[in-house]
Amino acid sequence: MNLPKRLTSLARGLFLALVFLFLFAPSVVVVVFSFNESRFFSLPIKGYTFDWYREMIHRTPLIDATKNSFYIATLTVVVSVGLGSITGVIFNRWRANRIVKSMISSVIPMPLLLPGLIWGLALLILFSRFDVRLSIWTVLAAHVLLTLPLVILIISTRLQTLDPAVEEAALSLGATYPETLYRVVLPHIAPALLASGLMTFTISFNEFILSFFLTGGGFNTLPIYIYSLIRWEASPIINAIATVMLVFAGLLVLAMYWIEGARALRGISRQSGEGDPAEPGAPSAIQVTQGATS
Amino acid sequence: MKLSGLVPRRLQGRALALGPVAAWYIVFFLIPLALMLRYSFAFTEQSRIQFVWTLDNYRQVFEDSIYLRLLVKSLRLSLTVTGITLLIGYPAAWAIARMPDRHKPKLLALLIVPWWASYIVRIFGMRMGFGNTGIINSTLKWLGLTDKPLEFFQYNFTAVALTEANLYLPLMIIPIYMSVERMDMRIVQAASSLGSGPIRTFFRVILPLSLPGVLTGCIFVFLPVTGTFIVPSLVGGPNDIVYGNLIASQFGESYNWPLGSALAIALLALLVVMLRVMTSLARWASGGVAQ
User: What is the CATH superfamily name and number for domain B71-122+159-288?
Assistant: First the structure.
């Protein structure tokens, strides 16, 4: 009885290891070849070098693109978390008509579900129709829309763990709305705010498809610059850039895990059946997996 | 009536708070899509767009066999990718759910890590693997297993499908994990103690119970892959362009925005219908079977 059990658990572990190997293979390959002396991506590796990193830091277009991405991501965090958290709070506490609410909640995740190709081009049409020059602002408009659904979902999920009676108590004891928001609600959702901020930053910083259409010829974001390198100059310099990005992303994930992740992920196992059957598992699934369109 | 907590009682308060987000959705989502719809009825003459009302673009979409062929190819690609991710993702989700509780959050976090790395970087990583001189073929040659590059690992449809599968696998695993994890294992035990074999138990008990998660995962994978265009152009061969490339090229080199809009609207309509079918299936599955 015990041996087959141990065998199945061994097989399970082995299978999972293979799955993770598949998932991580591209990233590992990218990192390894960033130190490869040869210009070509083939084994065996001849020797190790830091040349590609040295070459990387002397590229002005790369630095400009990184700056642009940084600005856009920071602004996206400010706007998206700002607007999204207010909406999350109101939406969670709003006992509106069921039909109205379910209509709104089916519209909210739309930017995540529809392919970025379609609404990225629709945005391009909008901007060209009204003669808006493509700039970091046009990219920002799209990135906010892409990340809003996640912020709203994370915040309203987090609020489900705060009993409305607590707020009622604060209100009936004489606190004003802003005071209650600041002293009661804000401390409760603070970790979720931080987590959604980190997530929003990462999504915006790495976003490709929308930026592809909305950057135009005048400027680049980092992912778009990488794309043009892949297209026109396949050199290990791409690997060096990508490695730095991966390290950065890894640090953010660690921070995220440390702040909210562990709790949120454990929460998934517990929230059995309390979700609205109209949206099968949607909120938390989206919450932990980032946008499908990024 | 339950206490409602922190909601401004008056309508103005609510409108003030929800207004900016609603405006953002209307200005940057609904209006652009409406404009796209309008463009799809216009036509281009000497690279100037004439805003008339014509069905010519749609006629072209449905009559020209190349458009339909590429649409079918896109659907075939997303079905293939959904199939691959489901076949790998279901057992993976099951395996994670059967792990000791303390490991689960770590494994789930690990699942999300590659998802946080840039989309373009992961595509680049996969691209390095394929091709005649790519890592897979050069390794096989180096190890002396082959003397010339294998066709299977060139830039082709397989490479595209595997790359997409690599990109979207976590999105399949997580929803399935959520429905498998909350499953009442006593029902499964009851089925087997009543004499049902493992295969029958899986198809009659386990699968129906996890169907909502499966369908959600399928939605998360199928929709974005149908709109893909960068992956086929970076890891596919010249014959592997799909419907998405066709749309993108109308806004680029071909410069025919009205036709591109019609192509995009046709895809949008198809996806909305599929989304509806799949969500009502999921609803039916969670309401009709699980409870």
Answer: MetI-like (1.10.3720.10)
Residue A84 and residue A79: Cα distance in Å, rounded? 8
pLDDT tens figures, A134-192:
888 999 999 999 999 889 888 887 887 777 778 788 888 877 777 887 888 888 888 88
SS3 track for B7-51: CCCCHHHHHHHHHHHHHHHHHHHHHHHHHHHHHCCCEEECCEEEC
Our CA-based measurement puts residue B245 at a distance from the nearest CA of chain A, in whole angstroms, of 10
For A204, the domain range is 67-271
Beta-carbon contacts of A154 under 8 Å, excluding residues fewer than 6 positions away, are: A88, A192, A195, A196, A199, A287
- 3-state SS assignment for residue B131: coil
Query: Hey, where are the domains in chain B?
Result: 71-122+159-288
Nearest CA in chain B to A8: B95
Q: How far is B219 from chain A (nearest CA, A)?
A: 8
> Among B22, B58, B107, B271, which residue's Cα sits nearest to residue A266?
B107
CATH number of A126's domain: 1.10.3720.10
B-proximal residues of A, 114-133, CB under 8 Å: 114-119, 121-126, 129
B42 CA to chain A: closest CA distance, Å? 13
| ipTM for this model | 0.85
Contacts of A184 in chain B (CB under 8 A): 6
Using one digit for the tens of pLDDT, what is the confidence trace for A92-126?
A: 776 666 777 777 878 888 888 888 999 999 999 99
